[in-house]
Recover the amino acids of this structure.
């Protein structure tokens, strides 16, 4: 937990998550109104992020360049008391390690339903 906290305060790691969050907002804006259900949105976002995932122990530099993530998951849930929004949880694990340890970066945000 302490390692994840330290990583979360370092700029390069924050930039990874912020860029992915930006892409999520762009996808949502481009698809506004086309997602009928929460599950449709979650499936579409996870399909999108999988293009950046290579679940391999030691991928080549070429693979890491095209697929910089070892794992990724997006969870979309309803926001209680706010019917116009979805809560989106983004969890990603890059291929690189910090001090020899794997780590997961996470971000929670909101997306408009319509």
């Amino acid at each position: 937990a302490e390692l994840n906290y330290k990583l979360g305060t370092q700029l390069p790691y924050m930039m990874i998550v912020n860029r992915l969050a930006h892409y999520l907002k762009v996808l949502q804006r481009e698809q506004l109104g086309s997602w009928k259900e929460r599950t449709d949105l979650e499936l579409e976002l996870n399909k999108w992020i999988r293009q950046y995932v290579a679940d391999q122990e030691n991928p080549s530099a070429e693979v890491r360049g095209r697929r910089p993530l070892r794992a990724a998951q997006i969870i979309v849930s309803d926001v209680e008391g706010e019917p116009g929004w979805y809560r989106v949880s983004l969890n990603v694990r890059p291929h690189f390690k910090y001090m020899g340890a794997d780590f997961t970066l996470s971000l929670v945000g909101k997306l408009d339903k319509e």
User: Anything to note?
Assistant: The two ends are 36 Å apart (CA to CA).
